[in-house]
């Protein structure tokens, strides 16, 4: 999917497309120079294409291996193979051994071996400290050339269960999860490679045989179908030698034929309806076949999609949201893949509204566009945002590696991105109208109606039944698997001994950013980091209080206040404010959180002053528009309604209520309830704003390409105009005495997974034991694939797609939580295994576990502050907890001082399963009766 035009060269002509907003400082012109992301590309004799990009800003390197194979290369009846391979390749190879790259990642301090599969490609990527680069090149080569012998029938059987759990979690057990399955089945003929989903079908996954796996690997995982990208701080001469050493002897595969471009075909409009077990509101999705990625028309289609839906002046917002009041939002996007594309519209109607009403409003919105077209002003506004989006996409070495790989497999030329941006900037109003007439106007489409169970009358008239295959939950349906046995095979030959893992390079120096700070006379504290990697400024203003200052009988006021603050100012209507921000290429958001209301901003450095002026208006002169207040309330009520059927939201809300107690505001949904939101008036919002938003409790964090002096000068007006007032923040609530473990169950009939939350209210960040407890948790569930929970429940048993544990807190004690979604028919077995892991954790913890923990937590500091988000998080910790700017060094000393007895003592104190809440959200009919066997008494059924 491509939603933002990607580029490695951005022409300065973007600035000429920008307009100066009224009442704000003028937009500064872009410099004449163009931004370039230089790269080197070479090809090995075996066909492997290699791309280097040098970035010395942090001592890290992103390693990205992209195979030009996705679900489009699969056979009918064997769908899901490309994605299954993404999983298998992490498990083992001949020289990496069991645990594969995941195990090595923990030792070297990597960001976590990750991957993704699309219709067209599969990638494997992570960021590592620069001293581990040779290790990564060795490991990636081992995956490509020395992998397939390690896949056995038990390994395949287990991983099939993991992938099926992913399908259940992401599609089968999620509201509206089957929408794309239904759309693509109707949009593409049976023999079209986009007819099936990337995840595949449960039956096809189950039927996969070892011979199928071997055939797929030998056909597609060959050097002449792979791109390797290295982006970061490394010596390109040495890196090339390593690439040649480890990859050159892998044999070239058979020639890979390109697939023909092939758009979807619809001869007449198709309407399909599905009663969704997890939906509370009716949702309409419409899709038209369009063009593939890099097609000349894809750029104008992208602009069309953004114009139709993304702003308050957009035709669909005007008609469906403001005028008809049928929905809170309409999403429109042009999705492009290598062979075809689709223009998609999605909107979720308010409770009780029919999708026939929505479809009639859709027609009106299209008619409005046909009558008015796209104004030049709006076309220029859309182009203005491209520069900021581009810089955001290249703000990390991992992002850069992804762009280079993407355009290389699409066109063979990573530099094609320059052409992509130029084509978007060249789009005219006539182009936008032309593509609408060509692909949308009067053309047949696919329309799906996903409605709550028992409410088929809400679906579009004339809809047929969507064919959705839903899994039946059968106890004991899957055989137990044991993938731990070593495979017996003749090792693949090599010209040198690959079994010896390369050593580390020179240790990288951890670059702790230089932090500056100042305090304004109105009380606002400001912390900043000057960072010139990209010409952006990102800042947030955290105003302490947030939901904590809500009243229990009117929970939701903080959220409504935050949302209202961007709905116009005293000087500007909501639409005018939105346009002024977008014409600067900026984004501004105000959100309410449990402990603060936060203004978050990204802007071009040259437009920082103008953007700050708008933020000042938002903070000091909110409009309190009655019409917008009514629209936002309806939107929030719709959100609350949908959450009532979402298993993950049910787990979160009930878990909070149990561990905090209903008298604690932290136990409540920040949105409120339908009852409390309906009771809130605009006067409540005004009162919250007047009483609680003060610079005396505000903290500003700034990252970007401006020095302290420039930031300090820019805040003079805000300092003068924003007057301080006393705000009383609630004191930290005491933690109640631990109580015996108890099982709670929330019934979601016919759930395909059970969502688990296990834990209790534990520690505050400021407690002396908090970080040592976090270190202790690394091997339990904080270390990804290095953790006991993942290794046993996912890798050992295939019960889950993912499981983790963590301590989370602030100045107040927060919970220790184990979270997972498990296959429904092993709910009891999963909780029993979690209980056993917790009971055994202290006695089973070894010196090797401690060494792995120390290696990861110390070595990962090399990449701790690479991104702007990481730097903002650092400033948040400094301003909120009073930590020193080099607190990472203090933490490093804590890690180095940890001993086995200390870990065991902390485990016994903070990881006692007999003092935890055990919450299950799943199918009570089949799973509740069994839960008593966990040994914590009779389960308590919580009503919804």
Topology of this protein?
Blueprint: E1 9-10, E2 35-36, E3 40-43, E4 49-54, E5 60-67, H1 81-88, E6 92-93, E7 97-98, H2 100-108, E8 114-117, E9 122-129, H3 133-145, H4 153-172, H5 179-187, H6 202-207, H7 210-220, E10 226-232, H8 236-247, E11 270-276, E12 283-290, H9 298-309, H10 315-323, E13 327-336, E14 341-349, H11 355-372, H12 376-393, H13 397-411, H14 416-425, H15 429-439, E15 446-452, E16 464-465, E17 516-519, E18 525-530, E19 536-544, H16 557-564, H17 574-583, E20 587-592, E21 596-604, H18 608-620, H19 626-643, H20 647-660, H21 674-679, H22 682-692, E22 698-704, H23 708-714, H24 716-721, E23 742-747, E24 753-763, H25 770-782, H26 788-796, E25 800-807, E26 814-823, H27 827-844, H28 847-859, H29 868-881, H30 887-897, H31 900-910, E27 917-922, H32 924-927, E28 940-942
Parallel strand pairs: 4-10, 11-15, 11-16, 18-22, 23-27, 23-28
Antiparallel strand pairs: 1-2, 3-4, 5-9, 5-10, 6-7, 8-9, 12-14, 12-15, 13-14, 17-18, 19-21, 19-22, 20-21, 24-26, 24-27, 25-26
Helix pairs in contact: 1-4, 2-28, 3-8, 9-15, 10-11, 16-22, 25-28, 25-31, 26-27
How would you characterize this protein structure?
By secondary structure, this protein is of the alpha+beta class. 39% of the residues lie in helices and 18% in strands. The strands form 6 sheets. It has a 6-stranded mixed sheet with strand order 3-4-10-5-9-8, with helices on both faces. Strands 13-14-12-15-11-16 form a 6-stranded mixed sheet, with helices on both faces. A 6-stranded mixed sheet has the order 17-18-22-19-21-20, with helices on both faces. Strand 3 and strand 4 form a beta hairpin. The longest helix has 20 residues. The protein is globular and about 75 Å long.
């Amino acid at each position: 999917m491509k939603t933002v035009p990607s580029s490695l060269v951005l022409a300065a002509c973007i600035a000429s497309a920008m307009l100066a907003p009224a009442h704000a400082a003028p937009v500064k012109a872009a410099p004449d120079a163009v931004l370039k992301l230089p790269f080197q590309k070479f090809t090995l004799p075996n066909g492997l294409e290699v791309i280097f990009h040098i970035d010395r800003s942090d001592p890290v390197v992103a390693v990205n291996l992209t195979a030009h194979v996705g679900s489009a290369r699969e056979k009918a009846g064997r769908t899901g193979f490309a994605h299954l391979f993404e999983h298998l390749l992490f498990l083992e190879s001949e020289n990496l051994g069991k645990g594969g790259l995941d195990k090595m990642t923990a030792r070297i301090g990597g960001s976590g071996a990750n991957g993704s599969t699309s219709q067209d490609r599969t990638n494997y990527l992570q960021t590592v400290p620069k001293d581990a680069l040779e290790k990564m090149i060795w490991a990636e080569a081992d995956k490509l050339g020395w992998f397939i012998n390690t896949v056995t029938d038990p390994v395949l059987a287990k991983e099939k269960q993991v992938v099926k759990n992913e399908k259940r979690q992401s599609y089968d057990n999620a509201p509206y999860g089957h929408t794309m399955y239904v759309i693509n089945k109707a949009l593409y003929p049976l023999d079209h490679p986009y007819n099936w989903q990337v995840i595949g079908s449960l039956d096809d996954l189950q039927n996969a045989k070892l011979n199928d796996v071997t055939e797929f690997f030998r056909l597609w995982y060959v050097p002449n179908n792979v791109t390797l990208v290295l982006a970061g701080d490394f010596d390109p001469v040495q890196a090339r030698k390593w690439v040649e050493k480890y990859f050159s002897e892998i044999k070239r595969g058979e020639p890979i034929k390109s697939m023909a471009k092939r758009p979807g075909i619809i001869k007449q409009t198709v309407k399909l309806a599905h009663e969704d077990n997890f939906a509370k509101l009716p949702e309409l999705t419409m899709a038209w076949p369009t063009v593939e990625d890099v097609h000349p028309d894809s750029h104008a289609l992208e602009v069309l999609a953004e114009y139709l839906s993304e702003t308050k002046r957009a035709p669909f917002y005007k008609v469906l949201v403001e005028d008809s009041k049928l929905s809170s939002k309409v999403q429109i996007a042009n999705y492009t893949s290598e062979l075809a594309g689709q223009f998609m519209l999605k909107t979720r109607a308010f409770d009780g509204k029919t999708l026939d009403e929505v479809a009639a409003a859709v027609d009106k919105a299209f008619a409005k566009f046909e009558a008015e077209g796209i104004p030049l002003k709006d076309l220029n506004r859309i182009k203005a945002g491209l520069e900021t989006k581009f810089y955001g996409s290249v703000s990390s070495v991992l992002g850069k590696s992804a762009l280079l790989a993407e355009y290389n497999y699409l066109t063979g030329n990573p530099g094609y991105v320059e052409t992509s941006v130029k084509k978007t900037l060249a789009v005219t109003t006539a182009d936008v109208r032309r593509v609408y007439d060509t692909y949308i106007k009067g053309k047949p489409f696919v329309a799906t109606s996903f409605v709550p169970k028992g409410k088929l009358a809400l679906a579009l008239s004339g809809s047929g039944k969507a064919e959705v295959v839903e899994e039946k939950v059968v106890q004991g349906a899957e055989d137990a698997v044991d993938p731990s046995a070593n495979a017996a095979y003749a090792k693949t030959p090599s010209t040198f001994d690959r079994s010896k893992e390369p050593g580390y390079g020179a240790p990288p120096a951890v670059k702790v950013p230089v932090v500056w700070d100042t305090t304004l006379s109105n009380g606002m504290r400001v912390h900043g980091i000057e960072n010139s990697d990209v010409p952006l400024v990102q800042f947030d203003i955290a105003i302490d209080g947030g939901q904590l200052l809500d009243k229990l009988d009117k929970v939701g006021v903080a959220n409504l206040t935050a949302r209202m603050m961007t709905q116009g100012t005293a000087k500007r209507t909501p639409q005018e404010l939105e346009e002024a921000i977008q014409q600067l290429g900026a984004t501004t958001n105000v959100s309410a959180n449990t402990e603060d209301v936060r203004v978050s901003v990204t802007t071009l450095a040259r437009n920082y002053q103008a953007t700050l002026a708008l933020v000042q208006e938002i903070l000091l002169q909110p409009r309190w528009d009655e019409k917008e207040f009514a629209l936002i309330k309806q939107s929030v009520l719709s959100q609350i309604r949908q959450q009532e059927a979402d298993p993950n939201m049910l787990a979160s809300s009930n878990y909070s209520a149990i561990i905090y107690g209903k008298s604690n505001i932290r136990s409540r949904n920040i949105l409120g309830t339908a009852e409390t939101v309906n009771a809130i008036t605009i006067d409540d919002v005004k009162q919250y704003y007047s009483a609680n938003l003060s610079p005396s409790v505000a903290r500003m964090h700034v990252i970007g390409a401006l020095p302290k002096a420039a930031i300090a000068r820019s805040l003079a007006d805000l300092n003068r105009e924003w007057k301080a007032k006393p705000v009383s923040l609630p004191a930290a609530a005491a933690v109640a005495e631990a109580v015996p473990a108890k099982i709670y169950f929330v019934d979601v009939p016919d759930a395909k997974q059970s969502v688990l939350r296990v834990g209790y209210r534990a520690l505050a960040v400021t407690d002396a034991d908090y970080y040592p407890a976090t270190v202790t948790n690394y091997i339990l569930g904080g270390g990804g694939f290095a953790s006991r929970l993942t290794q046993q429940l996912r890798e050992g048993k295939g019960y889950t797609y993912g499981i983790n544990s963590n301590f989370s807190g602030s100045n107040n004690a927060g919970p220790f939580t184990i979270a997972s979604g498990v296959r429904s028919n092993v709910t009891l077995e999963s909780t029993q295994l979690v209980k056993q892991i917790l009971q055994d954790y202290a006695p089973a913890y070894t010196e090797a576990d401690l060494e792995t923990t120390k290696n990861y937590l110390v070595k990962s500091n090399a990449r701790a502050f690479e991104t702007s988000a990481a730097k903002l998080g650092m400033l948040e910790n400094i301003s909120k907890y009073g930590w020193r700017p080099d607190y990472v060094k203090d933490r490093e000393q804590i890690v180095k001082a940890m001993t086995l007895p200390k870990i065991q003592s902390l485990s016994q104190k903070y990881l006692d399963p007999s003092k935890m809440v055990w919450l299950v959200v799943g199918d009570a009919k089949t799973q509740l009766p069994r839960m008593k066997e966990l040994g914590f008494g009779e389960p308590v059924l919580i009503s919804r």
